Amino acid sequence: MKSYKIQVNGVSYDVTVEEVGPASGHPGEGQGRGSAQRATPRQASPATPQSASPAAPAQASRSGGALVRASMPGTILGLKAQAGQAVKAGQVILILEAMKMENEIVAPVDGTLVSFAVAEGASVATGDLLATIG
Known about the structure:
The protein is an all-beta fold and 134 residues long. It has no helices and twelve strands.
């Protein structure tokens, strides 16, 4: 078993995970039998940095900016910036609905929003280009 500490919305959780696949090396595992332990919440320390939301995967573009790509399949609910607008790293540029949840897609770098490659209501797949920041 492995223990991890994760943080969700400012609350820290201690989680223990047991691998149950055939690669775990334990006989009898990998057949749907395993154990899980309940995560126990505890308050995060004030010194722990928190991010508002995960950034969408980005690639450096040739001009030194970034290409913002969809981290999951979903539907574009709204564009929160405009082409030509200066954006800061971490600023919300669009909302992507996936699995009935609204996900804020943020600018991965400071720069100018060159263009959106999607429009409101568009369906996107994982890895689809959403925006270009220069």
